[in-house]
Amino acid sequence: MNGHHLILGELDDFITGESIKDTHDERYRQQLAQLLVNRKGYLKGEVEPRKSLLVRAGRKKAIIKIDFIIKLVGKVCMVIKYGPGSIVTRRRPLLAVSRVIEPYQVPIAVVTNGEDAEIIDGSSGDVISRGLANIPSKLQLIEFASGKPFNPLPADRAEMESRIVYCYEVDGSCPCDEDICKL
Question: How many CB atoms lie within 10 A of CB 153?
């Protein structure tokens, strides 16, 4: 089912080389991937696209896709989530993602609509910078993450953060959204 997503054909994923559906949203994701590698200094192997994340809200479960995770020195140091339109409304669910995608708090979360971005300190939830140009480079991320403890979240807090992600990303989602799989 294609729903309201206009499929323009196929394109090769910049990071993995695999053939994927060419949509307007995917074109923004590919631009972000190129920005990360060509201008921010990340190696393709440090950028994982379309990372699956299991989220729960009570007995309800779903798998959602996180657009990019950046892994340096064996730790996920940054998560990036793309969504069209207003990025302000996507801030809280992305912060929750940064708290449940790994068994520790991911230091940096970036929410973007492909034209603008907010860079969020995962620990405090504060927006520390704005704009695509201010997405941390590899060296900046290493420096920022080196001062972070990568502490695990208490189980009850992780459960609440997972509920937040489920509420924002799954409840009321478009039935044609192939990035969400209700279990």
Answer: 16
With b for 16 or more beta-carbon neighbours within 10 A and e for fewer, the 4-19 pattern comes to: ebeeeeeeeebbeeee
45-91 per-position pLDDT tens digit = 999 999 999 999 999 999 999 999 999 989 999 999 998 888 988 89
Q: What are phi and psi for residue 153, nearest 5 degrees?
A: -85, 140
The candidate with the shortest Cα–Cα distance to 51, out of 11, 90, 81, 21, is 81
Retrieve residue 98's tokens: 């940064």
Q: How many domains does the chain have?
A: 1
Task: Kindly state whether residue 6 falls inside one of the protein's structural domains.
Answer: no
Please state the φ and ψ torsions of residue 133, each to the nearest 5 degrees.
Answer: -65, -20
> For the domain that residue 71 is a member of, what is the CATH number?
3.90.1570
Chain position carrying tokens 């080196």: 146
Question: For residue 116, what are its two tokens?
Answer: 């603008």
Inside any domain, residue 39: no
